[in-house]
Amino acid sequence: MIEQNQKKLIKWLSGVVIAAAVLSVLIFTGVLNPAKIKKLFMIEPDSHLMTNRNAYDIALLEAQKWQPDAKLAFMDSGSISERGRSNTWKAIFISSKVKAKGFSIEIEDYKIILLAEIIYNGVGADFPTNIISSEDAIKMVRATKGYEDAEIYGAEVIYMGNLWYWGVKTSKGVVSVKGK
């Protein structure tokens, strides 16, 4: 019985040694990156917050109840994380059938908290799937000289002159970034 337990222990230890050796070789050769492994198991502190696309998808369904041809004109975050996520977003939609009015939708924690038809003169368009995200807009601002360590307060996206623009609100002012 003791001999059998010793054999099991030797097999188990051999397996551990072989696994450690293989893991070491994979890390040493660069096949496995410890930072990437760690990232796989980390939960980002803002992962529960909405992206601009999450908020848009929620808002669009409501806007189309207001007018089936509703197009996004403007979207604004509440306070925002470095990854472009916020627990609140406000969107304004327009319709070619309703002049000088827009439809304002506020979303908090994935739920609509306010719907209102408002006075609004602006243009809108379908929100492109290939627009850069609020996270990418923030990264572009961070890459701008003088804004590397600016505090980020929020982000807005607006349709102007047939183009989408991000406005990233910082402690040093608003930085405009083209959406494509």
Provide key terms for this protein:
180 residues; alpha+beta; 7-stranded antiparallel β-sheet; 4 helices; 33% helix; elongated
Written account of the structure:
With 180 residues, the protein is an alpha+beta fold. Helix content is 33%, strand content 32%. The chain has four helices and seven strands. It has helices at 2-28, 34-41, 52-66, 134-142, and strands at residues 71-77, 88-95, 98-108, 111-119, 152-160, 163-170, 173-178. It has a seven-stranded antiparallel β-sheet, covered by helices on one side. A hairpin with a 2-residue loop joins strand 5 and strand 6. The longest helix has 27 residues, at 2-28. It starts with a helix and ends with a strand. 26% of the residues are buried. The mean pLDDT is 89.
The portion of residues assigned to helices is 25-40%
Low-confidence stretches: none
Structural Rg: 25 Å
What's the overall average pLDDT, rounded? 89
Proportion of residues in β-strands = 25-35%
Distance between the termini: 71 Å
Count of helical stretches: 4
How would you summarize this macromolecular structure in one to three sentences?
By secondary structure, the protein is an alpha+beta fold. Helix content is 33%, strand content 32%.
Describe the protein's topology.
Blueprint lengths: L1 H27 L5 H8 L10 H15 L4 E7 L10 E8 L2 E11 L2 E9 L14 H9 L9 E9 L2 E8 L2 E6 L2
Antiparallel strand pairs: 1-2, 1-5, 2-3, 3-4, 5-6, 6-7
